[in-house]
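Explain my protein.
***
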Amino acid sequence: MRQLFLLGDSTCAEKEADKRPETGWGMVMQPLLGTSFTVVNLALNGRSTKSFLQEGVFDRCLRALHADDVVMIQFGHNDSKEDEERHTDPWTTYQGNLAFMAEQVRQKGACPILLTPICRRRFDDDGVLVQTHGDYPSAMIALAKGRGYAVFDLTQETFQILTHLGAEASKQLFLHLKPLEHPNYPEGVADDTHLNEVGARVVARRVLRFLSQHTPRE
């Protein structure tokens, strides 16, 4: 069976039981895909393209990769962080890291797909959604167009979803809990970056739709 590798950060990654109902969108891909792919979710909390490569996680993907597999690469949330371990410039090292991964995947006869990062839920005082990812989505899209990689603008896709829902209703997609609502968060939580189970399914369905449109069937 073909494998679908997911490379990315905490918005896609598997979550331990003590973090639930926080849910990475990669966690719900296998039930949606059924038997068409075996999902291998290598996404990890807090990683950027730089730290993902330096820690050897991408090498694990390459070792297990077969021809005709698909590799989805979603980074950007942490590449903008200022610490030395993770920071990349969007137009140089970020693009370079993405290109390195995509070309390595291609050399194995597999299909790379780039995904811009999901939107954070950040509305201004007027209730207008604010974009927080700077040039990273544009840099990824420019690279993909220049190199002929498939790219899904998940930033724009989720921007439209959150704008449609509005400031209050969009909370239903993220890790927002009142005090004592869940035993893992007795004091409550208001996390506008990480998804809950509902949000993960919404994002995963959009990713699956793109995958079905841009991946040749066996």
In short: Helices lie at 29-33, 49-54, 57-64, 90-107, 136-147, 154-169, 197-214. The longest strand covers residues 189-195. The mean pLDDT is 96. Residues 3-214 form a domain with the Rossmann fold fold (CATH 3.40.50.1110).
